[in-house]
């Protein structure tokens, strides 16, 4: 009789341990999931990790951060060469308005890496989303001497390939550059300041 009771106790102990282990696994699933940024957290400004490894020179991709479109553009050497030749047609060619970009992107390219531009794609006039027109000249569909950039079809504001606003358009300031840091050659984290990580900015 004693042997039967001991066997029963052992079975109950094993069953209880198995159930407890299963419960622990099930409980850990929502716990681990809680570490992932929720949609609400993303909307409130959680950083967005962008892999742009498939982006070819001259192309752009759009991601969302804080409910806003953020453009990541891989600029070609030809695109970069234009930037220092058009200062006379820009409102703020030297990016002097501090609120429009982090300190580490206050340079000719308005970027950490010259070839990679990260900018919020919202016109600084009334919040429309401009359209990219990268081809230069008449091929752009804008004007014969177009240097390449962005055109806002809502009210005609124009921005160059560094997001700097043209003169004599409704938009008062350059496009905003969000805080960001590079995690490698083809990954950028939007929403975190480079200065917080100690990453050096390009001059």
Summarize the structure.
With 203 residues, this protein is of the alpha+beta class.
What does this structure look like?
The chain folds into 2 domains: 2-36; 40-197, Rieske Iron-sulfur Protein. Residues 12-36 have low confidence and may be disordered. It starts with a helix and ends in a 6-residue tail after the last helix. By secondary structure, it is of the alpha+beta class. The protein contains 4 helices and 9 strands, in the order ααβββαββββββα. 23% of the residues lie in helices and 19% in strands. A hairpin with a 2-residue loop joins strand 2 and strand 3 (68-74). Strands 1-9-8 form a 3-stranded antiparallel β-sheet, with no helix packed on it. It has a 3-stranded antiparallel β-sheet with strand order 2-3-4, with no helix packed on it. Strands 5-6-7 form a 3-stranded antiparallel β-sheet, with no helix packed on it. The chain is globular.
């Amino acid at each position: 009789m004693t042997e039967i009771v001991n066997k029963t106790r052992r079975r109950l102990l094993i069953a209880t341990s198995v159930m407890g282990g299963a419960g622990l696994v099930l409980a850990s699933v929502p716990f681990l999931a809680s570490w992932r940024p929720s949609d609400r957290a993303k909307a409130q400004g959680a950083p967005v990790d962008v892999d742009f490894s498939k982006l070819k020179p001259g192309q752009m991709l759009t991601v969302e951060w804080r409910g806003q479109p953020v453009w990541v553009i891989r600029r070609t050497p030809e695109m970069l060469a234009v930037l220092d030749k058009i200062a006379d047609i820009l409102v703020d060619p030297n990016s002097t308005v501090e609120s429009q970009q982090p300190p580490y992107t206050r340079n000719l390219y308005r970027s950490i890496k010259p070839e990679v531009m990260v900018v919020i794609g919202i016109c600084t006039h009334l919040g429309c989303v401009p359209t990219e027109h990268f081809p230069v000249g008449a091929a752009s569909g804008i004007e014969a001497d177009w240097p390449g950039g962005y055109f806002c079809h809502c009210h005609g504001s124009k921005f160059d390939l560094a997001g700097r606003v043209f003169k004599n358009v409704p938009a008062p300031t350059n496009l905003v550059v969000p805080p960001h840091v590079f995690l490698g050659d083809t990954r950028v984290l939007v929403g975190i300041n480079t200065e917080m990580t100690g990453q050096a900015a390009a001059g």
